[in-house]
From TrEMBL:
<dbReference type="InterPro" id="IPR029061">
    <property type="entry name" value="THDP-binding"/>
</dbReference>
<dbReference type="Pfam" id="PF02780">
    <property type="entry name" value="Transketolase_C"/>
</dbReference>
<protein>
    <submittedName>
        <fullName>Thiamine pyrophosphate-dependent enzyme</fullName>
    </submittedName>
</protein>
<keyword id="KW-0560">Oxidoreductase</keyword>
<keyword id="KW-0786">Thiamine pyrophosphate</keyword>
<dbReference type="Pfam" id="PF02779">
    <property type="entry name" value="Transket_pyr"/>
</dbReference>
<dbReference type="InterPro" id="IPR009014">
    <property type="entry name" value="Transketo_C/PFOR_II"/>
</dbReference>
<feature type="domain" description="Transketolase-like pyrimidine-binding">
    <location>
        <begin position="476"/>
        <end position="650"/>
    </location>
</feature>
<dbReference type="InterPro" id="IPR001017">
    <property type="entry name" value="DH_E1"/>
</dbReference>
<dbReference type="InterPro" id="IPR033248">
    <property type="entry name" value="Transketolase_C"/>
</dbReference>
<comment type="function">
    <text>E1 component of the 2-oxoglutarate dehydrogenase (OGDH) complex which catalyzes the decarboxylation of 2-oxoglutarate, the first step in the conversion of 2-oxoglutarate to succinyl-CoA and CO(2).</text>
</comment>
<dbReference type="Pfam" id="PF00676">
    <property type="entry name" value="E1_dh"/>
</dbReference>
<dbReference type="InterPro" id="IPR005475">
    <property type="entry name" value="Transketolase-like_Pyr-bd"/>
</dbReference>
């Protein structure tokens, strides 16, 4: 077992002194970064600034117990901690402030996140995992208040999983589960539900997690007393305090932000509880100051009175730290020993200012050099066009007069010049056009890459293996197919685990995991509480640490509870780190064509629009669902797989190669050929569309039915357009609301695949009413598209074009 800070603090006075002065120096450097960062924003060199001044001492103390292999999940105030664990330099701090797109200079996000959002790179350039045990790890920060908390739970639980789960390469992710997950959150954000849900789950699961609450008494301008039921979060959390002999609850430690020795002790004790006993710990850091206020958007003088501002000046952590150093003395072997003098600390202060200024200057020069090189590569080419259009010189003069220039200004100049010279054929214009295409591809990579995996393991690269059937293939309930497939998955992939409400003991509510917990144990097949946001968070955190979690959200409607985490966190992991981190979670859920207001929602359009970055797979039966699980476990993309809830008891032929066959993503399937109209659908609605297609045959209409199978990615080879080219009519049928998923599908087919060229009739969408269905089968019939609805509306297309052959029904 790893040693803790308490167990390793047997050092000489000289080493002790050096450590103190190093901490003071780092604190001063961090503070000067905050001061200079604010000035850079207010002078127009950066867009926005939010800094960690006032929190230097607790973060220095936290960094001392943060070891290789540990993870942090935090928000935008932890620059001192990031400095202390070598995840940040002065130069990279300012590179992020300027939005420098160089991964080398700004490795946290390559300029994609505003300042204060930290991350370490977990992946090599090819998307493979680094040895996370050889570095200190920061999971990429997000701004949404308390949004970092659910992921924290998963990062901590991974340590508990690794105590009993090993696989080839697992030594890159854990040393027998001895790692801690550290979380940080502002005091006001503890009013958010994600905080309470995460802490509750951590206390129930007993995972090694330390949550630091930075309590400065305000949530921007709103004082703490208006944030929660109790102003003191420690008092409010007292019921969570674990009792001796019980395996529930957490430890709560309260400490002042300006008391350096108390902070060291607090974090040493917190580490000991978490690392040696696998107990969650809350470190409530009180009396935090915020010398520059919340951000560069305003001044805290607007809402803090003179008494509060005076107190903050007196109890600034660095000032109190300096006082403590100057007042410290100890007698050793008859000699009085001190840590430092006024002159020594003044020298450190001055050196910190110089170091920060030097780093800022270098970061600015590097950033400006990129802009200068870009401008120099195109300006002569634009100049060459002046003879072809008089407006070009005006554009150049406008560009030259700009006081502060950015890439967008260069591109604006080039594009205006190309617009002005449209229709002109010249070598000069061709040169500019060629250069524009070249630099646009570079910036496209800077700003739009890595929304999905770009590695060799991306889902699109997984080869299709078709299901194999024989005379001995059995007809079984659909739930048996998916259950037996999971059995093969758990046997084949020891790093795979599933968890959710009722997923363990009873084998999920539809028996798709029947017997799996008994066979593979409670660690790998686990029940959870009713808490969807943190079920997702468990998946994100575990996946960031090399496990392959399947996070089960019991019903599709319930995905709304974790949609914020899907949208803000999971969907953006690869993008916001420019390929530096990944979290290949599989979200398992079930739905479609259900009955009643609370179990019949189809929030597919919400998922599609809010979760770009996550694959959305909508199999029409359980065999297809099983194939998608097999595909995604070979991929490093995250995905949501929506099983058909009304298909578990329907008979399917079980493939002989269960656990091996795959369903390719982004590939449609033509399930019925036809020549008159193309019907496009997905999920449970497919069965009803097939029924309608048979009815249409009886009235002389030959319908081709297409199951899209995969909404993201969508029909990568544009096979639907080929179908429309043949039939000349298109109908999109969907159980989502009008203008929902059907609008997305229509846009993909008409705009991206340009199938409008082949239409002889207006494209038609048949969707649900805009309300949720009433209860029972009649509710479904009158609320969502029925076979009767489909037949009549599709028939009407043919009535319109040939009323004699297809006379009106009504």
């Amino acid at each position: 077992m790893q040693t803790t800070y308490i167990e390793t603090q047997q050092i000489s006075f000289q080493d002790f002194k050096n450590q103190i002065l190093e901490d003071y120096q780092l604190g001063r450097i961090s503070r000067e970064m905050s001061y200079l960062g604010r000035r850079e924003v207010l002078t127009g060199k950066a867009k926005f600034g939010i800094f960690g001044d006032g929190k230097e001492l607790p973060q220095l103390a936290m960094a001392k117990v943060f070891k290789n292999g540990d993870f942090r999940s935090g928000y935008y105030r932890d620059q001192t901690f990031a400095l202390a664990v070598n995840a940040l330099s002065v130069e990279s701090f300012f590179a992020q402030l300027y939005a420098d797109t160089s991964v080398e200079r700004e490795p946290a996000s390559a300029g994609r996140q505003m300042n204060g959002h930290f991350a370490t790179r977990s992946l090599n350039e090819d998307g493979s995992w680094k040895d996370l045990m050889a570095q200190k790890n920061i999971s990429s920060d997000i701004s949404p208040t308390a949004g970092q908390m659910p992921r924290l739970l998963g990062l901590a639980q991974a340590s508990k999983i690794y105590k009993s789960v090993t696989f080839e390469g697992s030594e890159k992710f854990s040393n027998q589960g001895n790692e801690i997950a550290f979380g940080t959150i502002g005091d006001a954000s503890t009013a958010e539900g994600h905080f309470w849900e995460t802490l509750n789950a951590a206390c129930a699961l007993q995972v090694p997690m330390i949550v630091s609450i930075w309590d400065d008494g305000y949530g921007i301008s709103v004082p703490t007393m208006k944030q929660r039921a109790k102003a003191d979060i420690s008092e409010m959390l007292s019921g969570f305090q674990r009792k001796e002999g019980e395996n529930q609850g957490c430890e709560i430690i309260q400490v002042k932000a300006w008391d350096y020795p108390a902070l060291l002790d607090a974090y040493a004790r917190a580490e000991h509880f978490a690392r040696t006993e696998s107990v969650p710990v809350v470190v409530h850091v009180i009396e935090v100051t915020q010398p520059q206020g919340h951000s560069t958007s305003g001044s805290h003088e607007r809402y803090k009175n003179e008494e509060r501002l005076s107190w903050e000046a007196d109890f600034d952590g660095l000032i109190k730290f300096r006082e403590w150093i100057l007042n410290y003395s100890i007698e050793i072997e008859g000699n009085e020993e001190i840590i430092g003098t006024v002159e020594e600390l003044d020298a450190i202060d001055e050196e910190a200012k110089k170091k920060v200024k030097t780093g800022q200057k270098l970061a600015w020069e590097n950033y400006q050099k990129t802009l200068t090189e870009l401008a120099f590569s195109v300006l002569p080419l634009v100049e060459n066009l002046k003879a072809q259009n008089a407006e070009i010189e005006t554009y150049i003069n406008q560009y030259t007069k700009l006081v502060s220039k950015a890439k967008k200004d260069v591109f604006h100049l080039v594009r205006k010049s190309l617009l002005a010279t449209r229709g002109t054929q010249s070598a000069e214009r061709n040169q500019l056009m060629q250069k524009y295409n070249e630099i646009f591809e570079v910036e496209k990579d800077h700003y739009s890459s890595h929304l999905y995996s770009q590695s060799q393991w991306k889902a699109e690269n997984v080869k299709e293996i078709k299901p194999v059937y024989s005379d001995s293939s059995e007809d079984v309930d659909g739930r048996v197919v998916v259950r037996n497939n999971f059995d093969k998955i758990f046997e084949k992939y020891p790093q795979t685990l599933v968890f959710g409400e009722d997923a363990g003991n009873i084998g999920d509510v539809n028996q798709g995991l029947e017997g799996m917990q008994e066979k593979y144990g409670e660690v790998r097949v686990a029940d959870t509480g009713i808490r969807e946001a943190t079920i997702l968070g468990q998946g994100i955190g575990m996946a960031m640490r090399g496990l392959r979690p399947i996070a089960e959200i019991q019903y599709l409607d319930y995905i709304l509870y974790c949609l914020q985490g899907m949208s803000d966190d999971l969907a953006t992991v690869q993008y916001r780190t420019k390929g530096g981190q990944k979290a290949p979670v599989i979200i398992r859920t079930r739905g479609h064509r259900l009955e009643g207001v609370w179990h019949s929602g189809s929030p597919m359009a919400g998922i599609l629009n809010l979760s770009k970055g996550i694959l959305v797979l909508v199999p029409r039966n359980l065999t297809k669902a099983a194939g998608f699980y097999n595909t995604m476990l070979q991929s490093d993309d995250p995905a949501v797989i929506v099983e058909c809830l009304n298909g578990y008891r329907l008979k399917e032929k079980q493939p002989d190669n269960i656990g091996e066959f795959t369903v390719p993503v982004g590939k449609i399937e033509v399930t019925k050929e036809g020549k008159d109209v193309t019907l496009v659908t997905y999920g449970s609605t497919w069965r009803i569309v097939m029924e309608a297609a048979e009815e249409l045959e009886k009235v002389g209409i030959s319908a081709e039915v297409i199951d899209v199978q995969s909404l993201i990615p969508f029909d990568l080879t544009h096979e639907i357009a080929e179908s429309v080219k043949k039939t000349n009519r298109l109908v999109v049928i969907d159980e989502d609301v009008q203008g929902g998923t059907s609008a997305f599908i229509l846009q993909q087919i008409l705009e991206k695949q340009k199938a409008f060229r082949y239409l002889d009739s207006d494209p038609l969408t048949i969707a649900a009413n805009d309300h949720r269905p009433a209860y029972a089968s009649d509710g479904d019939y009158f609320s969502k598209p029925s076979a009767d609805d489909m037949v009549e509306r599709i028939y009407a297309l043919f009535n319109e074009s040939n009323p004699q052959k297809y006379p009106a029904i009504y």
